[in-house]
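Question thread 4412

I'm putting together a teaching handout and wanted feedback from people who do this every day. The idea is simple: show students a protein as raw sequence, then show them the structure tokens that encode its fold, then repeat with a second protein so they can compare. Below is the first pair exactly as I plan to print it.
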Amino acid sequence: HYHTIVGGGRKPSRKMGYEREEIKAKFDGNTLFLEWRMCDANKYPEGPKGVIAVVPGLCSGPNTSYVQRFVRHANKHGFHVVVLAIRGMGSSPLEYGNMTAGTFTHDIAYVLEDHLTSEYITARFGKNLKLMAVGFSLGGAMLANHLGKTPNSRLHCAIAAESPWDFHQSTAMMGTRFAKLAYQPALMKGLWNVIKKTGDNIIEHTKSDTLRENLQMLQGKMTKKDGMKGYTVNDFDTLVVAPAQGYESANAYYTVASPFQRLGQVTVPLMCFSAMDDPITGPPPALDQWDAVCDANPNILHVRCPTGGHLGFMRGPIDELQGRPGFMDELVVRAFESAAANASNSTAAAPTRSNSKLSPKM
């Protein structure tokens, strides 16, 4: 819990700005924000190492602390970075009622496969840089689900960091007494802000009578003092996400959204990175399950750490005071550096080990 509460919320040394690109989603025409942060190409004689696309987690965006820290670290190591601002979260608009969820991968598919093409990257940077992607938490689950449904992805490689591989298990973890006190309030505040900002729009465009009635009920409770007290992410999934995505129940949604079942169909190198003490997603599936997946699909690499919490990975006091990047940021960037180097040397980049156990230096 220390890693999660203190580490996950620690602020970057200073906030960064982005260069915003606005595009229209292929699925429904919703405006999507791509937030770009370029590295200083003059510092790298051979040019930037690649482009990293970032998919943030639930209630997160380009200005969330862990995203800012990662973007800064990736820039320092020679990568251009683009953050996909998830629709409805933060300042990103939700115009036509289609909410983001673990099963809603249309935006990721359009951005990664149709928009950030070789031609686009060459025109923008003067060189066809390799495109890589990392998803954090829910963003990693969405990215893994996308790759499991996309047999010819143009990504060079990808990483799913601290993601819920089994949504049922993650829901159970978030249902514990401590989680309800420590983690649920912040998440629910973010989700209620989404409803406040986009509820009327969703009601106008949805074809689901159940969703419309649930949103109107929630909007009525929001006007009352403590009207939203006690609600959980599971309640939100039951009342909003499941009917919005066409599922009869939250459990039905969780079954389809769990990405572990799609890893066998992934056709690009995908590193799945988890902490054993993650109090939000819960521990990853058992090693024998990962062995079976990795043996069947050499594109999958599973890395687990004994500690680190959820997007935390605190270091020692001196390292933290000096603002050193966390273990998660270093691991992800080093993996992408290795993939970029392998690509430049025209060598195979597919992983050969099924499982790794790493101990971050805290």
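The second pair follows. I'd like the answer to focus on this one:
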Amino acid sequence: MTSTFIKLPNRLSIIARQMLNLKDINLKMSQRASFSSVNNMDEEVLFDAVGSARIISLNRVKALNSLNLNMVEKIMSSMQTWVAPGSNVSMIIIKGSGEKAFCAGGDIKAATEEGKKDPSSLKSTHFFRREYMLNHLIGTCPLPYVALIDGITMGGGVGLSVHAPFRVATEKTLFAMPETAIGLFPDVGGSHFLSRLEGSIGLYLALTGCRLKGEDVHRAGIASHYITHENGLYERMQADLLTLSNPTRDSINELLDSFHKQSCTKSPYSLAPHLPKINEVFSLPTLEQIYAALESDDSEWSSKTLNTLKKMSPTSMKITMEQLKRGKTMNLAECLKMELRMCRTIMLNKDFNEDNNGTTKAR
């Protein structure tokens, strides 16, 4: 079959390499930290203490708990206090308020507005810088950190959870990294965790923005556990978690494992029929070859996947492929530094600013 794919300009590959090689930007975390218990339901993030456990509740229910700079600063400040020497905190739990979302993404409206005013300004990437610092703190947190991803979990919400040792999905969980659709790239450490998923699933999820639901989030390796709401299992798990007298990673894992085993079903993995083709096609070294492979295959899955890719930003997809390739050999800190450099440059990209012209508020 003759390929109808129009070869993407070589300059896109050049742009991708240039973005990844810009001068390093320091991501050292500031040490200022203070913690105060918050009970005001008007607050965007709530903090509660139950014994030696600390609970973070994202509380922008109408905005699907999308993450803004104020929330980032408050969470980071509190966590720095909890992990400091002399603290009696033994465990951190993060969850979303409301029935629909853990966190639907990062609220990038302010960032895009700054980028339109002055793309070269550091203000345009300040939100991303602070967000990535929080992602790093979560990924290196010495305390057990449990993310209850019960509901929509995308973009910035993934950054608040995926780098933690415990990531609990439910039947309400909806995962996606949709950044290539808005001229961005899968950030918040996407270069680290996506590149480490089995086979070529990571690149497939990154390029297509494919949504995973419920138990599939665990099967793909995004969640560490799957616990259902049926028979009150999810609620009992939360209660038992808070009654652990001395929560350690081993005791928490043992508890979550017990509920996970009661929750698992024999329902089919949605990606299972397509895994051979995903691994074959998305292991190809260039975007042009991926397009050609999909065009030469007459299956319904290949046709749908090709149509999805055609809706994405070509520049973003080129960048994403190089990003994951490099991220596979980098640690989390190195990946986040690379992504911050990329952010500073992508603010100059018209795909990003056009796709975020008053329509996209979260990612």
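Top answer:
Good format. For the second protein you could add a caption like this: Confidence is low (pLDDT under 50) at residues 1-16, 22-39, 357-361. The two ends are 37 Å apart (CA to CA).
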